[in-house]
Amino acid sequence: MLNKVVIANRGEIAVRVARTCRELGIATVAVYSDLDRDAMHVRWADEAYALGGATAAESYLNTEAILAIIERSGADGVHPGYGFFSENTDFARAITQRGVTFIGPPPEAIEIMGDKISSRVAAERAGVAGVPGRSQVLASPDEVVEFGETHGWPVAIKAAYGGGGRGMRVVAGRDQAAEALESAQREAQSYFGRPECYVERYLTWPRHIEMQVLADGHGHTLWLGERDCSSQRRHQKLIEESPAANFPDDVRQAMGEAAVRVSEACGYVNAGTVEFLYQDGEFYFLEMNTRLQVEHPVTELVTGLDLVEWQLRIASGESLPFTQDSIHRSGHAIEVRINAEDPAGGRFIPSPGTITTFTAPAGPGVRLDAGYGSGDEVSPYYDNLIAKLVVWAPDRERARLRLLRAIEETDIRGVATTLPADVVILSDPAFVAGTHSTKWVEESLDFSGIASATSDPAPDDPRVRHDLVAEVDGRRVSVALWLDGTMASAPAATTPARPRRGHPSNVVGSGSGTVRVPMQGTIVKVAVQVDQEVRAGDVVVVLEAMKMENAVISERDGIVTSISVQPGDAVSAGDVVAQVE
What we know:
The chain is an alpha+beta fold and 581 residues long. It is 25% helix and 30% strand. It folds into 5 domains: 4-103, Rossmann fold (3-Layer(aba) Sandwich), CATH 3.40.50; 132-201, ATP-grasp fold, A domain (Dna Ligase, domain 1, 2-Layer Sandwich), CATH 3.30.1490.20; 207-444, 2-Layer Sandwich (D-amino Acid Aminotransferase, Chain A, domain 1); 454-498, no CATH class; 514-580, CATH 2.40.50.100. 49% of the residues are buried. Residues 455-459 and 486-510 have low confidence and may be disordered.
């Protein structure tokens, strides 16, 4: 077994890996940026070393800094988590060439499967059909247009060296091709350190089903079961579950066997996930993620296996002691990602800031994997995942109701989260019936009734919000009061109100000609010029915050009279970027 492991990541996955290491008696080494000096993953580790820098490129994507820490700490293993360097061949090779164990697949397998283009070719060689697409890196928007005109619109542009929906754009027609490719390349470069993209057909109403595989270095490759990850927004998974609802067992068996063939075709070792799109009884290979997935806990809860433990054991040279026939799945598990985003009015605006309160849920069958606690800062420089709330129950409906109960118990303040949107998703009849698809959240659900949990007045408004609890005719009710900032604060004896589901209010835009950014971030594109005519809803600037691009739009028709930013500028919440008269 390994003795000491550097966890080359941050947030909840770094904490998650550290927990299993501690149970196995393995010492852990955390790495951290300047902004993460006091982060939870640093507090959890046995040792911690500074990477320096603030942005991902300056810190968690700094290969030389991580290699130096490995040498200084004397670690004999490196766990990459997910994101950052987890699917980077050069990083994995740099680790193994130093005689240190990379807790993941061999660099050669990452080279094949970490590149989504070569993975398509490998899957075809294994007899597993993929979604129709081009198996070459896109050189220009003209190639997107040519593919779309030939195979039909819409099409999907995807990052060749990434996953998780980052660097993916759906293109509805030829006029959108250039802008979509540019945006996808920017996001891919920011999140994965490489801008290459490819194009494939975009299915009309698919489900996203993925298979967890586990392979040791002794020739044993097993599939552990599927996860349904169809509840997505902007191609980012919101809710995952296992097993998939309304999923025929013969298809499950065929998909599991296909996942094994794909894994064996590239000499895969360790934990990995083979992703498919499923539609009309047929499934298509999508990609293979050569790492641990964010949603791995649902598989752990239905199989009883600790996937991080088996990553460590396999990396230490152990053989899997169980066979395909001995893998048993029991009950149903559902996970929601708690992201620092404000879903008010359906906008899902990134919400960095300080978590002032974090009260975790409890009770039977409830698991919380968190990377933050009360007092921790959610930075705009990194991914916005705060925690994952996961439940297990004997059947899907019990699990759904248990998750709703657990969400209601969860109290996070200081930043807005996606939990109110999760309630909308879990309560929708299509989710209850298991008839949803990857497009269902954006095309069918109405989030307009969600009020912001951190709603603030306009920047020039001196009023301050106070959440209070009162009794009216003996009934306890929660109220929000907007008081003049110069007035005395709310009585100390009151308890802040917890938003409860079922009573949302509408959020309406102001229609102001002053274009302000809603959060801290970096301007990556200015889409208008002075004296240009714009319509309400037109994009004015594109802001990168929490590793995601966000379009900041005009709220009124008019003429752009001034622009106060340029690409590369750092901005804070409420900063004015343009004026429309």
